[in-house]
Amino acid sequence: MGFDVGAHLVRLGIVSSTSDHASVVSINIFVALLCSCIVIGHLLEENRWMNESITALIIGLCTGVVILLTTKGKSSHILVFSEDLFFIYLLPPIIFNAGFQVKKKQFFRNFMTIILFGAIGTMISFFIISLGAIEIFKRIDVGSLDVGDFLAIGAIFSATDSVCTLQVLNQDETPFLYSLVFGEGVVNDATSVVLFNALQDFDINHVDAITVLKFVGNFFYLFLTSTFLGVFAGLLCAYIIKKLYIGRHSTDREVALMILMAYLSYMLAELLDLSGILTVFFCGIVMSHYAWHNVTESSRITTKHVFATMSFIAETFLFLYVGMDALDIEKWKFTSDSPGNSIGVSSILLGLVLVGRAAFVFPLSFLSNLTKRSPEEKINFRKQIIIWWAGLMRGAVSIALAYNKFTRSGHTQLRGNAIMITSTITVVLFSTMVFGLLTKPLIRLLLPASSRNCVISEPTTPKSLLSPLLGPEQGGWEAETGGHSITRPSSLRMLLTKPSRTVHYYWRKFDDAFMRPVFGGRGFVPHVPGSPHEDTLNGWR
Amino acid sequence: MGFDVGAHLVRLGIVSSTSDHASVVSINIFVALLCSCIVIGHLLEENRWMNESITALIIGLCTGVVILLTTKGKSSHILVFSEDLFFIYLLPPIIFNAGFQVKKKQFFRNFMTIILFGAIGTMISFFIISLGAIEIFKRIDVGSLDVGDFLAIGAIFSATDSVCTLQVLNQDETPFLYSLVFGEGVVNDATSVVLFNALQDFDINHVDAITVLKFVGNFFYLFLTSTFLGVFAGLLCAYIIKKLYIGRHSTDREVALMILMAYLSYMLAELLDLSGILTVFFCGIVMSHYAWHNVTESSRITTKHVFATMSFIAETFLFLYVGMDALDIEKWKFTSDSPGNSIGVSSILLGLVLVGRAAFVFPLSFLSNLTKRSPEEKINFRKQIIIWWAGLMRGAVSIALAYNKFTRSGHTQLRGNAIMITSTITVVLFSTMVFGLLTKPLIRLLLPASSRNCVISEPTTPKSLLSPLLGPEQGGWEAETGGHSITRPSSLRMLLTKPSRTVHYYWRKFDDAFMRPVFGGRGFVPHVPGSPHEDTLNGWR
């Protein structure tokens, strides 16, 4: 009768006709694994070593083994890592939620230290890893890699993975460390964009003051435009909700609008070659400060949880994905003849990551401490160790970058590229598992419970909002004072502490007088108890 | 210096390297349009004609025009309709939310009428449209189409679009009509799967009783397995949440688990060649009956709104998409030499849809009425007209099916296929706009407010849960009674009304004695006020 399949296959096997059967199978496997990750993660929550990301990573690895065994070592195509999936769908909800739930007071109090770590720190790390790789890899046989490849290695391994940080540091237990390390991860996204732009027309023979100035200028331009875009999107959303929905609220529309506007800000930033991560992070901050107060109580509860849920699913998905992808047989094929080399390269890279991070955490903490008055505000040595340690993890961002660099246009066939890919995977797995597992115990060891509580009950008046800025910029006077224990002149102290107080005071005045009447926010809509981080919001206004 | 782009492009233009720049642009356009749809839809909410889907459709059309003009009639590739996107991502949240928020009492009270309409009705419509198309298209020049194509046309245009129904019928205003027309749309998904299976090995020369019985058997098998899968997924989710999370709740995990389990049920149904729509619909019903009562109060509010929001975004996206896609220039190229033909075909198809639906709504309503005792329970003529009218819309499902049938393997080049595609688009646009716009006024005209309120305040004891089943099955006695106004013998009445009462009574007993203690649910977890459709849940238990 010749009734050609077509028309009803869509309904029948639905996807079997339009996409292939394999993708339905893999979606099923993935969703089922996500469910099991959630359940197992919940059961292991009380465990002092584990966290959800490691659970997901291990489940992913086990599934990879099972798939390898059932397909007799042939499978690799179901689980190809896709940068699109990562950067378009998984990363935005994670970063947005981090901005939305971040303790704004902590974040802005340490703002300049965060910029310092994220910008200068990443640069230092980048140069150490790049130069180290050039020097060391020269001596062992790793296939053909040019200078561009080495600089790429530096860029891939210098960036802290903000998603990993979210997993190992607890915002409620160690708010200061969390805001510092996570904030650094957000800021260094902008750094790496600038870094790449600079390197594109970088000539090693013409490094002069203008190049450096241009570089610094570019960084600030990118940082400011990205931030501005995020703030603008957040304010626009707050304004729309406040103006349109007055007296006639619709929870579903409000929630949808917030989600879509946040996503739009991220995608716009990508379109304009800005840093999407910075943009969506600031969009989250602004939305939680204004828009969140303009919506119904139901919307408030819903948004708070739905952003966290989306972020939670994306994170779990990501680690599961990395775990499953790690065992992809194709990548290991080219390195199997020289396993010693791959292990060697991985160890060297891990060592460089350790050194590169140490090389900026300790000096920059010292600089930052110089600008702090009271001993409680200083980053003591124990905290410095935790900052160093907690930022060592390399995650999905590194894998995505490595794939993008070393697998394009079929270059995986080259031995050098294959070794780099497998080494990146090894470094990511090792750092996430080992550093990740040890972070919780390390914090417990270095910061006793009393000290951690002390961190929470810090004085609530933000004092050093801008003071760290003066530290590194006025590079001259550190040489004079020599160490952070020397009492600095009180006139200097005034200079350092007053601006931040002033800035905060005027910000509150400005916020109350101009921003809140237009964009809404706490106090300009009926107060609802039980808001998230109520104290924080109080602190920042 | 040769620093090859690669590594940082991911971070820089992020997607520009991995996917093409165009896709970032189109994501931006889409998200921005979605935002504007939400805002404009809110502004037009009070308008008595418009609804959100038509707003989205018009905005989509306008954007299509703008894109056509700016690209000087060349653009078509940004906006290609993808069945994958539709069936894997957009449809599941819409149907799941419908199941989750459906008034269960109404739905189960009319269960057999719904099955009747969805199964037998769709069949009748399918045959009328197929045969009509064969007869009429023979006489006009529409290119080469074989019998399979005509049967496909029947299948494409016989299915009510459940998404459209959600938009024009209001569950609170006309719960009976809503549950009937929407339920029909869900059930006829199973019908079309069976229909397709049957047609695959259908031999026109060997239609006998066994073929028909096999067909009926297949339908019930598919219906029951799909339903079972959905119910199983819902119960499993309820059980997991109840067992694992006792005493230690985590809202984010609960919400994530509910979303993922529901999606898993849909994808599993697709994998097993069942009806995913039926599965996810029943999964929603079971989740709202059990799992929803096991979670924290925050989760309850969050899930209620987040499912509605996801569904809302998916619906808006869909109509926007259809609107934008309609103006794709490539499709119209082949029909531009004979515009008269295309209009003719569209009109014929529209006429067939009208006739095909009338041919089952009125007779089947008559059958259904025969089984009802009280005049209030009967589907009066005015309601029949609304049922007929509200189910006339053809939407994205039709377009997806038409694309799948007529565009595969480059067949768009054939004139017959091109005409079918453009005609489908015309029918969809016309029916959604015209029928959609007129539905609200029609309901207002035919059902005065008092009557609509009367519908809401129907007696709360479900009486006719299974009674409509006896109507069509016991085909013998309608001939005896002749019309629905004749008083039927009381013994028959007892037969008809008792089973449903008994079923409901035993269901409640069973639910309270076995299901609720295991799976949780209302009364087995502390009562929380303000649950959605509280009365409904009360009614169903």
From TrEMBL, chains A, B:
GO cellular component term, pick one: plasma membrane
Entry-linked InterPro entries: Cation/H_exchanger_CPA1, Cation/H_exchanger_TM, NaH_exchanger
Catalytic reactions of this protein: Na(+)(in) + H(+)(out) = Na(+)(out) + H(+)(in); K(+)(in) + H(+)(out) = K(+)(out) + H(+)(in)
Domain Cation/H+ exchanger transmembrane: 32-443
One record GO biological process: sodium ion import across plasma membrane
Classification via Pfam families: Na_H_Exchanger
UniProt KW keywords: Antiport, Ion transport, Membrane, Potassium, Potassium transport, Sodium, Sodium transport, Transmembrane, Transmembrane helix, Transport
Highest taxon listed in the record's lineage: Eukaryota
Membrane spanning stretches: 25-44, 56-73, 85-102, 114-138, 150-169, 176-199, 219-241, 253-269, 275-293, 305-323, 343-364, 385-406, 418-438
GO MF annotations, alphabetized: potassium:proton antiporter activity; sodium:proton antiporter activity
Localisation per UniProt entry: Membrane
Membrane disposition: Multi-pass membrane protein
NCBIfam families: b_cpa1
Family under the similarity heading: Belongs to the monovalent cation:proton antiporter 1 (CPA1) transporter (TC 2.A.36) family.
Official protein name in the record: Sodium/hydrogen exchanger
Organism from which the protein derives: Ananas comosus (Pineapple)
